[in-house]
Design a protein that fits this description.
This protein has 467 residues and is an alpha/beta fold. It contains 11 helices and 25 strands.
């Protein structure tokens, strides 16, 4: 009997839970001034935010779709509902969350993770946060962690000062879209000198079909403070397109440190057009750890702007593109001051015809003398059907820097598989071992629980059907 020579696509178990589309309010499909005004009215927003949304809509209508990367021809905004409010109000008591929503987050392990290893949790379902909680000791230290709607009401001045200043609506078409229809997301402020020793996490779940999720995350880590923030996201699979166009704005002040970890497992009918950017001041540091496993199309390139002398950034990321997936991911960094440094370590895996593209920008400005940048990207193709590309742009405007770029693209080694099989492993076990080893530099950067989740996602992609 001939051994299998390919790895099967499988169902994603708990991530594919579907609830009835049971909402309190759902906006009409499409995008118009009337719809935007109605979303703002439903949220009872202040006037300046309503005006901001309308300005963003004007910008969206002016900007063109990207002319590079995966085709977005399948996206028809007239078929997307941009706001879905679930039944039930936000609560800090898990027992008060509506039962169907609670059972979904229970299955995803969110309450258990909160008990074991988190200082605070926010859980968003469709367009609104349904649960938010933070440990008392952080509240006593002055840490603020809440949803964006509450922040806009209770900390309006801080939100107005920072909202879409790191990521302006002119950046690209889907940032403008986000500015017009954003809803939900997280607001974090860590006061000067406070070290948040246990991570905070927000989890975003999109349940409603033919809809979009547009959460906004705004984090300010003040001088000398430290924080690890974890973002998780998933959605069940439907036969029609869903859209995710969130936005993450991170402000890392002088001598502050932020680690931003993400495990994304969107369903394979999702277009993931997310935007993430950090501004880092003198001797501050932002570290990104990213795992991208889901979505039909992803266009995601976190960005660090090193504005202060001695600012640092590290990016560690992995993407896994299976059948029908086109994951166009990477990283962008701008060195805007002397003695800044960046380290980029990116890995991608593709199988069954999946397309994995690494797209990057490194820009070292004339004032960034004595800066250092090291880029390494590796791609592993598991069969002859798959595709991998590396598309770097390196814009170096001063000679007084250290810069290196290394790229490796290759297929899984038949010799290595044969060797492992000669030691008693099956072909599938051998391939799984190779892939897990390839991904280890990323998983070791995650807290234990999330490294386990990432390895489970890899196993789901590699193994045959379960159950």
């Amino acid at each position: 009997m001939r051994r299998k020579t390919y790895l099967d696509e499988i169902n994603t178990n708990i991530y594919d839970i579907k609830n009835k589309d049971n909402y309190e309010y759902k906006a009409k499909k499409g995008l118009s001034k009337e719809i935007i005004e109605e979303i703002s009215k439903q949220k009872n927003e202040v006037q300046w935010m309503r005006d901001f949304r309308l300005k963003a809509l004007e910008m969206y209508n002016k900007l063109e779709l990207p002319t590079w990367g995966p085709s977005l021809d399948e996206l028809d905004m007239s078929e997307i509902a941009t706001y879905v409010r679930p039944k039930g109000n936000m609560t800090n008591n898990w027992d008060d969350v509506p039962e169907d929503i609670k059972s979904t987050f229970d299955a995803l392990g969110i309450p258990e993770a909160e008990k074991r290893s988190l200082a605070g949790v926010g859980a968003q379902y469709d367009s609104e946060v349904v649960y938010h909680s933070m440990k008392d000791e952080l509240i006593k230290q002055g840490v603020i962690y809440t949803d964006m709607e509450t922040a806009l009401r209770d900390y309006e001045d801080i939100v107005k000062e920072h909202f879409m200043k790191c990521v302006p609506i002119s950046d690209h078409k889907f940032v403008a879209l986000h500015g017009a229809v954003w809803s939900g997301g997280s607001f974090v402020y860590v006061p000067k000198g406070v070290d948040v020793k246990i991570p905070l996490q927000s989890y975003f779940r999109l349940n409603s079909p033919e809809s979009g999720q547009f959460e906004h995350t705004l984090i300010i880590v003040d001088e000398g403070a430290r924080l690890h923030f974890i973002e998780g996201c998933s959605a069940p699979k439907y036969n029609k397109i869903n859209l995710h166009a969130g936005c993450v704005e991170l402000f890392v002040k002088k001598n502050a440190y932020l680690r931003y970890s993400t495990i994304e497992n969107w369903s394979k009918n999702m277009l993931n057009l997310n935007t993430k950017k950090a501004i880092v001041e003198e001797n501050g540091q932002i570290d990104w750890v990213t795992g991208s496993f889901g979505s039909k199309i992803s266009m995601l390139y976190p960005m660090s702007i090193l504005n202060g002398k001695g600012a640092k950034t590290e990016f560690t990321g992995i993407s896994f593109a299976g059948k029908g997936q086109n994951l166009d991911t990477g990283f962008k960094v701008v060195h805007n001051a002397p003695n800044t440094s960046s380290v980029v370590n990116s890995k991608s895996i593709s199988k069954n015809g999946g397309i994995a593209t690494y797209r990057s920008l490194v820009q070292i400005m004339p004032r960034a003398k004595n800066s250092k940048c090291s880029v390494s990207c590796e791609s592993l193709m598991l069969d002859s059907l798959s595709k991998s590309d590396t598309i770097p742009v390196n814009d170096i405007r001063t000679e007084e820097v250290e810069f290196s770029h290394e790229a490796k693209i290759g297929k899984i080694s038949d010799k290595t598989i044969f060797y492992l099989m000669s030691r008693g492993l099956s072909e599938e076990e051998a391939k799984s071992m190779i892939v897990r080893g390839f991904a280890y530099p990323i998983s070791k950067e995650l807290p234990v629980e999330y490294a386990v989740e990432m390895n489970n996602l890899i196993n789901l992609e590699l193994e045959g059907s379960i159950g």
